[in-house]
Amino acid sequence: GYGAIVGANSVVTHDVPPMTIVGGNPAKFIKKIEPREKMS
């Protein structure tokens, strides 16, 4: 998914949701990435 991060040596066996971090063998959900607010 958009903005997703996959850990090194991970084996992805399914779609990765947007804005998440996955890792492992098989790849599993680790953390949701929170969008930053833009500073003006």
From TrEMBL:
Transferase is among the record's keywords: yes
Keyword match Transferase: yes
Keywords of the record: Transferase
Superkingdom assignment: Bacteria
Signal peptide: none
SUPFAM superfamilies assigned: Trimeric LpxA-like enzymes
Gene Ontology molecular function, alphabetical: O-acyltransferase activity
Family, per entry: Belongs to the transferase hexapeptide repeat family.
UniProt-recorded name of the protein: Sugar O-acetyltransferase
